[in-house]
Specification:
Elements lengths: L1 E2 L22 H30 L4 H28 L2 H24 L5 H28 L6 H30 L1 H21 E2 L11 H13 L2 H31 L4 H51 L3 H29 L5 H30 L1 H17 L36 E9 L1 H21 L1 E8 L6 E8 L2 H11 L2 H11 L2 E10 L11
Parallel strand pairs: 1-2
Antiparallel strand pairs: 3-5, 3-6, 4-5
Helix pairs in contact: 1-2, 1-4, 1-5, 1-6, 2-4, 2-7, 2-8, 2-11, 3-4, 3-6, 4-11, 5-6, 5-9, 5-10, 8-9, 8-10, 8-11, 8-12, 9-10, 9-12, 11-12, 13-15
Amino acid sequence: MIEASDPAAVPAPPTRVGALAPLTVPAFRALWIAALISNIGSWMQTVGAQWFLVEQHSSPLLIALVQTASAAPVLLLGIPAGVIGELLNRRTLLIWVQATQVVIGGALVVLTMSGEMSPYLLLALTLVLGAASAVELPAYGAISAEIVPTPFIPNAASLSSISVNVARAIGPAIAGALVSLLGVAFVFALNAASFAVFLVVLLAWRGYRPSPHGFEPFLDATRAGVRYVRNAGIIRALYLRLGLFIVPASALYALLPLLATQRLGLDATGYGVLLAGIGAGSIVGAFTMPRLRDAIGVNRTVLLCALVFGVSMVGTALSPWPVLSVVVLAIGGAGWIGVIATLNGAVQSFLPTWVRTRGLAIYQMVLFGSTAAGSALAGAVAGWTGSVTACLGAGVVVVLVGLSQLALPLAATAHIPRGRGELPLPPLEMDGDIDEDAQTLVLVRYRVDDEHRAEFLTRMALVEHSRRRTGARSWTLYADREQPGVLVEAFDVGSWREHLSQHAERLTRYDEQVIHDAQILAVSVDTEHLIATGAAPLAPRA
């Protein structure tokens, strides 16, 4: 039995957190090992699927679509998956998803062994597995951040990326050997078994206590998550940087089977060794990333690692020898993990608890959507110009994307407090019962002296973003014509329930500080709450 860990009960971590510190938390360690095994199976599945299509003499586009089929469901289902992961018990959700993947994995085995598998059926079942992963990923990311102390979160994200890349190092090499010896069906069977291992670990985990949160209707929760990201400039910048990198960078993974066979003359085992080179470099890079990130910061780490990966793509496209390709790919693997793990850790650390699963779902949408688009684009370009030219061009684009950070750097976030803020709701005298679903209009009247007016307006621009991030659907600042010096902030919230959530759980200490900084410039602050009555409109007069 695996006991849940209470982050509050873990000894206070030191100022400098070690790369492996999250593994001292028993629940995280058990989930990480299970995820590693599952990721190994998934990479074996990917290699097996791609090699099945190679043996069927499928087109470059069809081979590249294996990655697209795995990634596209995250783009389509990401936001609903994030909301589901926010509202439901995450452990229970993960159990059901793993059980579904066991069933689909078993179907892949039976169809392949019976000779009924076709390229398009394989892509369809890969798409279904991708849909299950789309539901699983944000819930797993949020539950991992939930069970470790806050200072451990960036390194927990790095360890999750290490899990993927250790799997990338081990899975393809194993799959390449097993495809040659025992066939694609056996590789698919091991993938189904890896899902079963993760399922058993989840069933053995007891005592999980999800973070408390109020009830939210599904559509309201969906809108709230999208609204937060739309009004969080730092999060949007991180997502944009991720997408700009992934679209061209995904060409390497999409085209590597073709480079292995057509340029280097390798078989399935040799292709697995190339992927193992990427994975090995990723492992080394992941363990050095925390120290590099502490030394030069998030922005320079992403810049440097993007340049390294872009140059490695160029080197891989031009390399005529397998041994050189493995070395170049290992260097590229370190660059890859540097970009992905650093951006992932920055996102997880910055997202408030109340919207973390939804925010991570949108992160996964950007990651997998960019992978799907980039893989399909790479396959199409390779069919036109050849795999070498397509990979070479994509590598040049990655280098240019990295250099663009010199002009558009990521914002520093270390100074922004992210804990839950406190803004008590003033005592209210309500006339009868309140419909919690009723639309709510909040009016805040500020009396501001003339000498503070300009500065107040500047600070209210930050207040607007805070209100919108935490639930306001519209926001306007009015000047009172009848009372000079009075400014009225008016913002509309979808429901009284959502406004209560603004006060109870959605504000961070940064939001609290922003609101306080504006209010201290006012001589007086008075708040009104207007609740929609739902009264029927008057009938027109005859």
